[in-house]
Design a protein that fits this description.
single chain, 515 residues, alpha/beta, 19 helices, 44% helix
Length: 515
């Protein structure tokens, strides 16, 4: 086996006892004897730990002159000379042992990092490519990021997401810290599950505890609902908001935000249940993880209309009054943030409204403005980077999947055509979960295209969107799933290069400084 030859090479070259300088000199992304990832080799107590590629999948290898040093890892043991070796499967137990042995393989809070980038990875295969891009910029990556919807469609778990990233962070030898985002959570049960497996960032989706119906009420109905709120909420709303205009000024500019008495009452009725729930979640996070060891993002973007500045201001002020500290907040911006394509809307109006949202954030704790469905929104990237001064969170998900699809189209055209056909067939089901408006008439027929032209479909908006949202249905087909992952394994290096190129383009567009 290649892995056995690689282990013999490590022992022969005395890397078990080599200086850190010698170990670091070998980190170039290559494979030793076609098996051990050189970047993954690290000192672990009296021995060495790394990740290897085998015909049976990737394996963790642990080497030590002391057999006791291997006790926390489970696998197949052997001895080469005086060196004890263990080849370990990538199990949850070995992931936990790895995080204990090398703490930098575990996710951490990124609250102190001004620029953070969510690298959603539906497949659990893209992290090395994400890190190749992130290492070039002054950015902190959130590598383990998944929503409940994605977990359900991909038959994954939060534990599996964290474990997959743990091993890939070792593979890439990335020691600078990364985040783990349990995205768009709505229930305490889901939040508890995410915390228990080590997710460090909770994106709290308030859409199901808000009262959007209030926006359709007439003033009389709003007043009636307002009268049902606790007396202290009524007093605060009347005293601090009704008929008031608040002047705000920050590095992003200055603005004045006014509340009529009617708008103040509407905000109180619409958001009070959600704000109380947010306080409950924040208390749970502090209890379970401890102060300063988690990142809470507030999501108010899952609504049908853009977030009004007055509503944003009311929400953050009332969160602060309840003692809730957010690291980031995601408004619903004006325009269309559809999956997999560029921003659709008036850039001048987006700039004006984005500036106001940034001023609110900068004057109320300087939290990060979070841009959801942020992948491929190249026209607004310079605006986001400039106005926030580089203090933002960018969230991407399906764009990494689309790069994997691009690879399949280039290397396995027959498989891609099969996927394309099924994607069109299952699009009606996907549209129950995702909002996109692709013009299907603009998609060329893959059966009339040359094999060499198929990858270009991932540059066509409608095709991108159809493949973007049907991922779960495609990979539910056992035959597609098996061959799809075989292609990713066979062309692993090319996959990483494609991910790297795509994310470098994102980070350059956002104006993130290079290292």
């Amino acid at each position: 086996m290649n892995i056995e030859r690689a282990i013999q090479t490590l022992i022969k070259n005395n890397l078990l006892h080599a200086s850190d300088e010698i170990l670091n000199a070998g980190r170039n992304g290559s494979l030793i004897e076609g098996s051990v990832y050189a970047d993954s080799l690290f000192r672990c107590g009296p021995g060495l730990i790394g990740l290897a590629r085998t015909e049976q999948g990737k394996k963790l290898i642990v080497l030590s002159a002391e057999a006791q040093a291997l006790r926390d890892f489970t696998g197949v043991s052997s001895t080469v000379g005086s060196v004890h070796c263990r080849i370990c499967p990538l199990t949850p137990e070995n992931a936990a042992a790895l995080r204990a042995a090398l703490p930098w393989t575990a996710p951490v809070s990124l609250a102190d990092r001004p620029t953070t980038f969510g690298c959603g990875d539906r497949l659990g295969r893209a992290t090395p490519g994400h890190l190749r891009a992130a290492r070039q910029f002054k950015v902190a990556p959130v590598l383990a990021q998944q929503s409940i919807r994605e977990l359900t469609l991909m038959h994954r778990t939060f534990r599996g997401v964290v474990d997959d990233v743990t091993f890939q962070v070792l593979q890439a030898g990335y020691t600078s810290g990364y985040g783990a985002d349990a995205d768009h959570l709505k229930t305490l049960d889901h939040i508890r599950t995410a915390i228990e497996v080590g997710m460090t960032m909770i994106t709290l989706d308030l859409s199901e505890v808000m009262r959007p119906d209030v926006a359709r009420m007439d003033p009389r109905q709003v007043a009636e609902e307002f009268a049902k709120l606790p007396a202290d909420i009524q007093d605060i709303t009347t005293r601090d908001y009704a008929g008031k205009s608040l002047d705000l000024q920050s590095a992003a500019g200055k603005t004045a935000i006014a509340f009529s008495a009617e708008e103040a009452r509407l905000c109180a009725v619409m958001y009070t249940p959600a704000l109380d729930f947010a306080r409950e979640v924040y208390t749970l996070l502090k209890t379970k993880r401890g102060e300063g060891r988690f990142d809470l993002e507030m999501s108010i973007d899952e609504t049908t209309t853009p977030t009004l500045p007055a509503h944003h201001l009311f929400i953050i002020r009332e969160l602060i009054r309840r003692g809730v500290k957010v690291v980031s907040l995601a408004p619903r911006f004006i325009g269309e943030f559809q999956k997999g394509i560029d921003y659709v809307g008036d850039l001048a109006e987006f700039t004006r409204q984005f500036t106001v949202h940034t001023i609110i954030a900068q004057t109320h704790g300087n939290y990060k403005i979070s841009v959801h469905s942020g992948s491929d929104k190249f026209s607004i990237f310079p605006i986001v980077g400039r106005i926030t001064g580089g203090r933002f969170h960018e969230k991407t998900a399906g764009t990494s999947w689309l790069e994997a699809v691009r690879l399949v189209a280039a290397q396995a055209p027959r498989l891609y055509r099969k996927m394309h056909k099924m994607a069109l067939e299952r699009l009606p089901d996907a549209l129950k979960l995702y909002h996109i408006t692709p013009d299907l008439a603009q998609i060329p027929d893959p059966n009339l295209m040359k094999d060499s032209e198929l990858a270009g479909l991932m540059n066509q908006d409608a095709a991108r969107q159809v493949l973007h949202v049907t991922y779960g249905f495609l990979l539910d087909d056992p035959a597609i799933r098996e061959e799809f992952f075989q292609v990713l394994d066979q062309f692993e290096e090319e996959h990483y290069r494609m991910i790297e190129r795509h994310f470098v383009r994102h980070m350059e567009g956002l104006g993130i400084p290079r290292r």
